[in-house]
Amino acid sequence: MKVTKYSGELVHYDEQKLINSLRKSGADQAMTESIVKEIESEMYEGISSKKIYKRAYQLLKNVSNVHAARYNLRTALLGLGPAGFFFEKFMAKVMQEQGFKTKVGVTLNGKCISHEIDILLLKNDVLSMIECKFHSGQDAKSDVKVPMYILSRFNDVKDKKYDLFSAKRNISKCIIVTNNKFTTDAIQFGECSGLNMLSWDYPQKNGIKELVDKYRVYPVTCLTTLT
Prior knowledge:
Blueprint: E1 2-4, E2 10-12, H1 15-24, H2 29-42, E3 47-48, H3 49-63, H4 65-71, H5 73-78, H6 85-97, E4 101-109, E5 114-123, E6 126-133, E7 141-142, H7 145-157, E8 161-164, E9 167-178, E10 181-182, H8 184-192, E11 196-198, H9 208-215
Parallel strand pairs: 1-3, 6-9, 7-10, 9-11
Antiparallel strand pairs: 1-2, 4-5, 5-6, 8-9
């Protein structure tokens, strides 16, 4: 059987992918098997992956709001839009849980022009900057133009000292964060250029989805009891 992705592409239904997503939400084997069986009994040729996701979410919510909230995480991140400000605030909180001091939305004068930096971080006397790329569409990806542009901004500020967090320091590290995914070229260029990349699923096993679970920092849009 084939399903229709968000992009409109038809692909073969992958039962294991559904099972994995349910198990990652915290559902046990029995709950997972029950939900998969129910969904597969309702499926038809060309069903959208969005409908499968929504049905799985509904069935999870009937059993556990906690599991449903975790299953809903990626969609919840999209709910922080359409502008990127709330995503920036959320990522600052994730960084704080890792021991960083943070400042959000700071304007700095670079060598050539001024820049509004999304997030500034300080830990172990290392000053870093984060630039966030927020996408409101499920299938949107940050391509190679994103790290190329952000690298130019980083190069314009890295050689100056800034009086931040009660001392003058250089910004020595730049991190690019997106709520969705990077293209392969974007990752390759970013790594080659010394940039740190963080997306929904990158670095592998240490992307946003893992950090959120590890530090138990969930966006308010995850809540299943708001309505």
